[in-house]
């Protein structure tokens, strides 16, 4: 801390600040381009000029670029001196010499930093009458659009992409006045954070291609601070809609969780609610309800009225299935409704999902939970699982540790974008092993850290690094771990002591809330009542049991006379439902959610659709005999204050989110295969998600579907890229194209979540895998014909190793 003086006004600065940062924090509106709060400064734009005020006899005033000068006590500057203003105007005039005069039609209009700065410094007329220089644009895939002529060479884009996100398929080319920012060849970016080029660029060089297709001026959007529903991190977003449709998602710069940036799933995945097949009206047996009389108008048009009629007809024989994809308020409303009807309720679609989630929440509570900032500042990080594909913004935080050359140890069983990035910066810190070996590995880590001798070299290396670290963060992916593995992670954290903070990325955005509010064995109890023929009607809200867990729910379908599904995307369960009710997505309503670290967050409706949609608020307000006080009391008991939309949320009182697993939940374990046996593991694309799977633009860059194998199984089966294999588990089988990848652990068969569900296999389950007969291959190739370049693109990270 110290004091500098700008225009004779004392300004406090913080340690590490440059003069520009101190001025901005004090509210002084200084022009800048190359500087960014998360990236620092490059000193390339030369527009943040100030003039020094001499403090010694004989000293002359100098003009300095404030982003490159560290703030030091007693410095004096003039921001409004004629020389500084002359430099600022000259810089802007230089940039505008070749800048296109397309502000009236530019996508960035209203959000353009160059536009604002040009007006602020007073530049209005172009004196240069020569031809403008033009630069070629590049096709960058379905997410980002480039207009290179608007570039001011601030280098923000490449500094973010290469230095912050550790990407390597985009950079700077050329020199002098012919500098280009581009990829070596046309095509979509490899990085899961490429959409941030849209936000990071101070001009309109990179714009949102999805937003362009349904463009609206920024000041015409209906906006609000919302929360991303893409994963459990709970990133703050600015959601914008117009005329009842979602137009764009931007990261909220006010967030403590994700200041300035967001992953591509969060930015583009929400557009899955704009899919053409989204249910937007009440359907019965696939058709809109007929309006027979004035008495049936409300039932046909109002989702809540229709749900009330369904419950009345069920006469108490109803079960309610919520969702880990939904927020706290929705699941609380459903739970309260179930209590009112004396009906079973669960927010989980399988007992294994319930046990995993509760164990993960209990682990997050038992030790100090690491925030995104905690991860970024850690001396040592241990990652268990493929983090990018489940919680991309936690991955981005880990990359900040890697770029500072602090050790990051990663244990994984299949391909991961973070592993690819790590391999370029670190050696021998990634450990690839099958899921059946994860719990013994965690035990070995705990033993090594407690001073015992172990045979695993990697565990000994981690233990040595842990001895030298002041702060340690252990990050796990809950969906990939069973209760025993999570308990082993907790035991490791206990051995590491007070220096450690542990974090488990939860399966979905609403997982923490679901775990806190669900009764013990809630899913198993609901399923048992279905098996005992105690229920005639099943109401499903915001989840897809018949698509995500068909091995469990398909066998129960004949047990109910009526399946009612309320959702915001078209799912397998909707296709099987007798009745369909349109459900509001998060940007379309108000709500409360709890992120992985136990932060209660509020979000606000950004825009309203033309069609009436079901929401928690509608259930609470319109269903008879509904007691809102029960919900309010539950929320208020969790925390000392209830947040409002736009603030940073409130951490829950630790004891209030303390989860005690039942005896049956503690026994839930994966059926792990013996060593050197083909076993299932989950491979997930970083753009995949419950809603994101319906986003058209993301689906255009989705990797080729196949089964990923390591060289060990490839040699045993005598197969190669493009061949097909038969995979069996129990009575279930499927055929898939082979994609060879060195990041897949020995004996692992890396399958998508859909394929695991189709096989009714847990992670680590033993599989039978054989090469498909030639006749079968020829028949299959007619269906799944692919080009060689598509196959290469699917091999994530393979070419970089």
Q: State the helix count.
A: 30
Q: How helical, in percent, are the residues? A: 25-40%
Number of strand elements: 33
Strand content: 15-25%
Brief characterization of the structure:
This protein is α/β, with parallel strands linked by helices. The chain contains 30 helices and 33 strands.
Structure description:
With 801 residues, the chain is α/β, with parallel strands linked by helices. The protein has 5 domains: 2-96, Ubiquitin-like (UB roll); 105-116 and 126-274, no CATH class; 283-352 and 512-657, Rossmann fold; 355-506, Dimethylsulfoxide Reductase, domain 2; 679-800, Beta Barrel (Barwin-like endoglucanases), CATH 2.40.40. Strand 10 (222-227) and strand 11 form a beta hairpin. It is globular, with a radius of gyration of 28 Å.
Write the layout of secondary structure elements.
Elements: E1 2-6, E2 9-13, H1 19-25, E3 49-52, E4 63-65, E5 76-78, H2 82-98, H3 113-121, E6 144-146, H4 156-164, E7 171-173, E8 180-182, H5 196-200, E9 206-208, H6 209-212, E10 222-227, E11 236-242, E12 245-251, H7 264-268, E13 283-284, E14 287-288, H8 297-301, H9 303-314, E15 318-321, H10 328-341, E16 345-346, H11 351-366, H12 372-376, E17 380-384, H13 392-403, E18 408-412, H14 417-425, E19 430-432, H15 438-449, H16 457-468, E20 472-477, H17 483-496, E21 500-505, H18 511-517, H19 522-531, E22 537-541, H20 545-548, H21 550-553, E23 562-567, H22 572-576, E24 579-582, E25 591-594, E26 599-603, H23 616-622, H24 628-638, E27 650-651, H25 663-666, E28 679-682, H26 696-699, E29 707-709, H27 711-717, E30 724-729, E31 732-740, E32 748-751, H28 753-759, E33 768-771, H29 774-781, H30 788-794
Parallel strand pairs: 1-5, 15-16, 15-22, 17-18, 17-20, 18-19, 20-21, 22-23, 23-24, 28-32, 29-31
Antiparallel strand pairs: 1-2, 3-4, 3-5, 6-9, 7-8, 10-11, 11-12, 13-14, 13-24, 25-26, 26-27, 29-32, 30-31, 30-33
Helix pairs in contact: 10-23, 11-17, 11-18, 13-14, 15-16, 15-17
């Amino acid at each position: 801390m110290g004091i500098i003086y700008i225009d004779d006004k004392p300004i406090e600065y913080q340690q590490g600040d440059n003069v520009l940062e101190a001025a901005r924090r004090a509210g002084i509106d200084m022009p800048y381009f190359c500087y960014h709060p998360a990236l620092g400064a490059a000193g390339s734009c030369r527009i943040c000029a100030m003039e020094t005020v001499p403090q010694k006899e004989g000293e002359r005033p100098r003009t300095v670029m404030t982003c490159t000068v560290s703030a030091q006590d007693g410095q004096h500057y003039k921001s409004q001196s004629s020389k500084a203003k002359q430099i600022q105007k000259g810089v802007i005039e230089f940039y505008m010499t070749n800048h296109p005069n397309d502000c009236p039609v530019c996508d960035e209009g209203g959000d353009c930093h160059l536009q604002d700065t040009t007006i602020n410094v007073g530049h209005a007329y172009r004196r240069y009458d020569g031809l403008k220089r033009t630069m070629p644009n590049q096709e960058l895939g379905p997410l980002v659009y480039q207009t290179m002529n608007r570039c001011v060479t601030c280098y923000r884009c490449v500094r973010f992409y290469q230095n912050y996100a550790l990407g390597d398929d985009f950079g700077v080319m050329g020199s002098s006045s012919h500098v280009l920012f581009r990829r070596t060849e046309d095509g979509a970016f490899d990085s899961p954070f490429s959409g941030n080029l849209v936000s990071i660029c101070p001009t309109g060089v990179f714009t949102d291609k999805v937003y362009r297709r349904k463009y609206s001026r920024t000041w015409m959007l209906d906006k609000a601070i919302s929360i991303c529903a893409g994963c459990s991190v709970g990133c703050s977003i600015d959601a914008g809609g117009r005329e009842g449709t979602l137009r764009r998602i931007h990261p909220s710069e006010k967030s403590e969780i994700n200041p300035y940036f967001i992953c591509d799933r969060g930015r583009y995945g929400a557009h899955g609610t704009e899919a053409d097949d989204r249910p937007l009206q009440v359907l019965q047996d696939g058709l809109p309800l007929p309006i027979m009389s004035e008495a049936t108008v409300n039932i046909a048009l109002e989702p809540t009225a229709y749900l009330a009629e369904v419950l009345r007809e069920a006469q108490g024989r109803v079960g309610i299935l919520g969702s880990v994809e939904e927020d706290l308020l929705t699941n609380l409303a459903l739970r309260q409704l179930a209590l009112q009807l004396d009906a079973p309720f669960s927010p989980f679609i399988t007992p294994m999902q319930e046990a995993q989630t509760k164990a993960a929440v209990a682990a997050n509570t038992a030790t100090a939970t690491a925030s995104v900032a905690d991860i970024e500042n850690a001396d040592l990080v241990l990652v268990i699982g493929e983090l990018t594909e489940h919680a991309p913004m936690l991955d981005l935080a880990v990359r900040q540790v890697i770029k500072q050359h602090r050790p990051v140890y990663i244990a994984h069983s299949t391909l991961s974008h973070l592993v690819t990035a790590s391999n370029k910066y670190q050696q021998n810190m990634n450990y690839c092993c099958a899921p059946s070996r994860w719990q013994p590995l965690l035990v070995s880590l705990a033993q090594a850290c407690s001073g015992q001798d172990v045979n695993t070299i990697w565990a000994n290396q981690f233990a040595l690094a842990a001895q030298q670290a002041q702060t340690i963060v252990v990050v796990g992916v809950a969906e990939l771990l069973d209760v025993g593995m999570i308990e082993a992670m907790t035991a490791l954290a206990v051995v590491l002591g007070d220096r450690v903070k542990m974090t488990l990325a939860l399966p979905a955005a609403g997982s923490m809330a679901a775990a806190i509010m669900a009764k013990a064995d809630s899913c198993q109890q609901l399923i048992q009542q279905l098996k005992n023929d105690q229920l005639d009607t099943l109401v499903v809200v915001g989840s897809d049991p018949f698509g995500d867990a068909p091995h469990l729910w398909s066998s129960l379908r004949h047990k109910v006379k009526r399946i009612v599904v309320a959702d915001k995307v078209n799912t397998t369960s909707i296709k099987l439902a007798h009745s369909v009710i349109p459900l509001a997505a998060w940007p379309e309503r108000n709500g409360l959610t709890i992120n992985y670290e136990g932060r209660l967050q509020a979000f606000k409706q950004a825009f309203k659709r033309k069609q009436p949609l079901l929401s928690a608020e509608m259930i609470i307000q319109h269903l008879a005999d509904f007691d809102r006080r029960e919900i309010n009391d539950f929320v208020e008991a969790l925390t000392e204050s209830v947040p409002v939309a736009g603030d940073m949320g409130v951490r829950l009182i630790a004891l209030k989110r303390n989860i005690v697993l039942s005896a049956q939940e503690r026994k839930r374990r994966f059926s792990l295969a013996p060593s050197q046996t083909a076993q299932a593991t989950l491979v997930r694309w970083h753009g995949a998600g419950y809603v994101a799977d319906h986003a058209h633009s993301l689906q255009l860059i989705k990797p080729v579907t196949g089964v990923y194998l390591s060289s060990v199984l490839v040699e045993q089966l005598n197969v190669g890229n493009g061949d097909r294999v038969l995979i069996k588990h129990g009575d279930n089988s499927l055929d898939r194209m082979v994609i060879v990848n060195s990041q897949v652990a020995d004996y692992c068969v890396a399958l998508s979540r859909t394929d695991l569900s189709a096989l009714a296999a847990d992670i680590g389950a033993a599989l039978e895998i054989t090469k498909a007969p030639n006749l079968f291959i020829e028949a299959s190739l007619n269906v799944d014909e692919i080009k060689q370049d598509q196959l290469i693109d699917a091999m994530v990270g393979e070419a970089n190793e």
